[in-house]
Specification:
The protein is mainly α. It is built from six helices and no strands.
């Protein structure tokens, strides 16, 4: 007996074979005990499926439901842990990326040195003394009045 024979017997049980195939199968069943045993086995399986209880056991459902709840709680616990750890990290990474990208805006940046800072402050102080000659106050000039 081959797997094609088993498939053919299933079709025979479901009455999905042509009349010619039906006669051929019934002839083989009469002469081949292995084929007849397979047909009996398939009929037994069909009866067992038809006679199974229609309602599931409440104990089985309760166990399944508790397993589902336990697994869903475990998933949320892992997601909560990841959220508490990842959100601050991602926020810090975003700040760093924005800081880096703001330096590449294309506008030329003034050189931030101590000398440039003091020169800027000197200009601010000198602008307060409008009545005085600014050359008198600038360092590095040798002219005095």
């Amino acid at each position: 007996m081959t797997s094609d024979d088993a498939d053919l017997l299933i079709l025979y049980l479901d009455d999905l074979v042509s009349p010619a195939q039906k006669v051929s199968i019934e002839t083989r069943l009469a002469t081949e005990p292995a084929l007849q045993a397979e047909l009996d086995y398939l009929r037994q399986i069909r009866r067992m499926i038809q006679n199974r209880p229609r309602e599931s056991s409440p104990l089985i459902w309760n166990e399944i439901e508790s397993r589902i709840q336990a697994e869903s709680q475990a998933i949320w616990t892992h997601l909560e842990w990841a959220g508490r750890r990842l959100v601050p990290f991602l926020a810090a990474a975003a700040v760093i990326i924005l800081a880096i990208l703001s330096n590449f805006s294309g506008a030329p940046q003034a050189e931030a040195t101590l000398t440039a800072y003091f020169q800027n402050q000197e200009g601010l102080i000198l602008s307060e003394f409008t009545g005085l000659d600014s050359a008198f106050l600038k360092p590095g000039t040798t002219e005095t009045r």
